Amino acid sequence: MLKKNERLATLNLSDNNMGDKVIKDICEALKANKSMKQLGVSNFNIKVDGIKIIAKLLATTLTTLDIDNNKLKDEDIKAFVPALKANKSLVSLDISRNSFQSLGAKHIYEAFKTNKVLKKLNLSFNRIGREASVKEFLKVNKTVESLNL
Q: Which helix (H) or strand (E) holds 53?
């Protein structure tokens, strides 16, 4: 069904706890979709393999990504960074309520240093602490309008 639907713009699968195998199948089906704007997979039990698969979707027209509450750790975030750096369409990223710390936040800040489209970034309810240099991030990124820590 998803493979044939090229007009689907929003897909919210949050709170399904399905994991990486299902996210792989879903992302594979969405590859040909040029209309997809919003993807919600919060509380989906995504791990590093699922993040790598979702990262491939960032090469499309996706503008909003909600991956909160997946217990993502620093190394999971690091696997996601190259796609975030290359992305030219993502306007809103909610990566709150995960398990990454200041290193994960630094990876995200690094990814968005040169990004010119991101407007909303939610990192709340992680364990980023004071070491994550929000000040340095805000010095170089001039497009973020909402930063939730």
A: helix 48-57
